[in-house]
């Protein structure tokens, strides 16, 4: 029969009172016997102190002896065993632990049992560590995959170049591929380093006041070879805007967003970049393209690391799916927000909202 928790507590309390009563009685009789035997009459204060000390001592010995009883030890061990086992499993990297034994023992649900908090915390910790481990594995597998495909191309074409019968044009074509794939690898490592530094406890963050419109214009112009090669019509409408932000990090935001628009917009398409101030001291930058667009499902994932909306056509566009996660991280650091609207085949509109002034992080 299982006793309710409150009844167990009352019994426990009574047991302690009885044990204290017995210990102090023993101490009283023992000291009385010793004083009688040696015929001494100590001062009342000495009597009280020696009684208390002996009482505590007897109580301590009693508790110690009880914990030595094999039945009590077995019960304690049986109770602690799953907990110790769970800790061992976690130390070995296995976070799939099952502590349902305690839920049964404690009568299920949340209760006041002193162990219930510990069990809850350990279960929560195991769940969080398990999720982190899953993310770590996924990250490693993504990185390996991203490294493997350009490496395979490089190895294949380097091997093909050994063939002495290759014509000049073929040789040049293979070398171009090797160069492109090497640039891809280098960008991947660069982006990984950027993301790691942004996710560190103290990311680089240096605030300074500068002209946001100048920054965006400079980046659009720096990318002119790419958009003019595709004969993209670039429409620029930038108001005079000042911002206090980390200029290098914000460079990265506009570079990544403009690169995406250029990359995913077919020849003779249009990209419109607008920057303006909204009445309540909010700076808005809109980058709108008439590119391939994305469906609603893709929009839910674009800020996840390594996500690419169109896997089948992705080889054509290149990239590792780290651009937007980096953008999001930088905008979050600036307490801003980013919003993407898109329709397949019609185009994409990215809206970034930023506060003109930042508080240091
Ligand atoms: N302007 C856009 N038009 C259409 N699709 C886009 C656009 N911007 C992003 N996407 C989709 O979102 C995905 C994630 O973008 P992200 O910038 O993170 O990665 P990437 O451009 O593929 O690679 P990277 O930026 O690392 O070179 C892209 O692969 C693409 O499918
Ligand atoms: Mg990108």
UniProtKB/TrEMBL annotation:
SUPFAM superfamilies in alphabetical order: ATPase domain of HSP90 chaperone/DNA topoisomerase II/histidine kinase (SSF55874), Homodimeric domain of signal transducing histidine kinase (SSF47384)
Compartments it resides in: Cell membrane
Record key words, sorted: ATP-binding, Kinase, Membrane, Nucleotide-binding, Phosphoprotein, Transferase, Transmembrane, Transmembrane helix, Two-component regulatory system
Transmembrane segments: 12-31, 51-71
Reaction(s) catalysed (UniProt annotation): ATP + protein L-histidine = ADP + protein N-phospho-L-histidine
SMART domains: HATPase_c (SM00387), HisKA (SM00388)
Keyword Phosphoprotein: yes
Domain Histidine kinase intervals: 142-358
EC number: 2.7.13.3
Domain of life assignment: Bacteria
Cellular component per GO, a single term: plasma membrane
Membrane topology annotation: Multi-pass membrane protein
Keyword Nucleotide-binding appears in the UniProt entry: yes
Signal peptide: none
Gene Ontology MF terms: ATP binding; phosphorelay sensor kinase activity
Protein name, entry field: histidine kinase
């Amino acid at each position: 029969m299982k006793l309710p928790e409150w009844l167990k507590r009352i019994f426990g309390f009574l047991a302690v009172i009885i044990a204290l009563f017995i210990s102090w009685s023993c101490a009283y009789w023992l000291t009385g016997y010793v004083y009688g035997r040696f015929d001494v009459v100590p001062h009342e204060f000495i009597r009280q102190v020696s009684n208390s000390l002996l009482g505590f001592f007897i109580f301590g010995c009693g508790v110690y002896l009880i914990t030595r009883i094999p039945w009590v030890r077995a019960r304690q061990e049986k109770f602690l065993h799953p907990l110790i086992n769970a800790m061992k499993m976690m130390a070995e990297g296995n976070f799939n632990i099952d502590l349902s034994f305690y839920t049964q023992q404690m009568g299920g649900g949340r209760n006041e049992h002193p162990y219930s908090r510990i069990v809850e915390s350990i279960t929560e910790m195991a769940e969080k560590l398990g999720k982190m481990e899953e993310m770590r594995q996924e990250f490693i597998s993504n990185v390996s995959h991203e490294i493997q495909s350009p490496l395979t191309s490089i190895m294949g074409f380097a091997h093909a170049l050994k063939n002495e019968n290759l014509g000049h044009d073929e040789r040049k074509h293979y070398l171009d591929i090797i160069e492109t794939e090497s640039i891809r690898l280098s960008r991947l490592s660069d982006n990984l380093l950027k993301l790691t530094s942004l996710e560190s406890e103290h990311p680089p963050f240096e605030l300074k006041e500068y002209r946001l419109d100048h920054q965006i214009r400079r980046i659009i112009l720096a990318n002119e070879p790419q958009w003019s090669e595709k004969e993209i019509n670039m429409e620029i409408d930038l108001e005079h805007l000042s911002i206090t932000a980390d200029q290098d990090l914000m460079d990265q935001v506009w570079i990544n967003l403009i690169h995406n628009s250029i990359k995913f917009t077919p020849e003779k398409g249009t990209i419109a970049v607008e920057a303006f101030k909204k009445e309540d001291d909010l700076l808005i930058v809109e980058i709108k393209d008439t590119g391939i667009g994305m469906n609603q499902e893709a929009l839910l994932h674009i800020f996840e690391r390594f996500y690419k909306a169109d896997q089948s056509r992705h080889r054509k566009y290149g990239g590792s799916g780290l651009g937007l996660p980096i953008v999001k991280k930088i905008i979050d650091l600036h307490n801003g927000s980013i919003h993407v609207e898109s329709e397949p085949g019609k185009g994409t509109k990215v809206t970034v909202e930023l506060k003109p002034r930042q508080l240091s992080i």
